[in-house]
Specification:
- The protein has strands at about 1-5, 10, 20-25, 35, 50-55, 60-65, 80-85, 90-95, 110-120, 125-135.
- The strands form two sheets. The protein has a five-stranded mixed beta barrel with strand order 6-7-8-10-9.
- With about 140 residues, it is mainly β.
- Helices cover about 0% and strands about 45% of the residues.
Length: about 140
Amino acid sequence: MEVSIKKGAFHKPESPDEKPYLIGSRCSSCGYMCFPKKEVCVKCVRDDCMEEKKFGPYARLDSYAVIQVAPTGFTAPYIQAYVVLEDGPKIFTLITGCEPRDDALEPGQKMELVIEKIRDDEKGNSLIGWKFKPVEEKNKS
């Protein structure tokens, strides 16, 4: 059985015509945007102005690291990264769709949101969540 790693944080497409998206917030008072969504704006500290906002499906890679030692439930090596959403904030994410090597990616590279299995839980369920994959190859020097 598939179980969301964070309920209400993303939309998984139900048809090939749909794109996935993340569900965050935007403050109608100061414009602050965040993911996952929040009830209170952390910038202007108001609790009456956060509106749900859909983000995605594209981002640019900010920075990344190849993780060589994995916590329980994960298999090393794998890539963790910060990406800047095309229409939103910088977020922390897992990367898929490329070899987990130090030279696999390049800052500024275009990335695309995918909803995939993150790992199995203790009951054997597939925990699904957001990841990003490269859309284009890194620049050749």
